[in-house]
Design brief:
Layout: H1 2-20, H2 27-53, H3 59-89
């Protein structure tokens, strides 16, 4: 479920970034990071489905399951690192209006 929550969060961030347009700070970097994260999460999901379908009790499949599990763990680590950078560059919508340049409240 955490993977689904992260996927939805990244999709929302990507939407907010696209709405802000190229004028947003770090636009290109964030587009690349968010896209990479979303693609990695899809790959991780597919890999976990494949792992779940294989029978661990069959000895001849255990080496394959071990390698697939290691690959999934590595991809999850990379996705976490990418998402740390996404958070550091800040691609979320605050919902606050742009700051006013004058001090007049009207």
């Amino acid at each position: 479920m955490l993977d689904v929550a992260l996927f939805l969060s990244n999709a929302t961030r990507l939407k907010a970034l696209l709405e802000q347009g190229p004028a947003a700070p770090y636009y290109t970097v964030l587009i690349v990071l968010l896209s990479a994260s979303l693609l990695l999460q899809v790959a991780i999901g597919v890999l976990l489905v494949v792992i779940a379908r294989l029978n661990l009790n069959e000895v001849e499949k255990q080496w394959r399951l071990n390698r697939l599990n290691n690959a999934a763990t590595t991809l999850v680590f990379i996705a976490v690192v990418i998402n740390v950078f996404i958070t550091a560059f800040g691609a979320h919508k605050t919902g606050l209006p742009a700051a006013r340049t004058s001090r007049n409240p009207l």
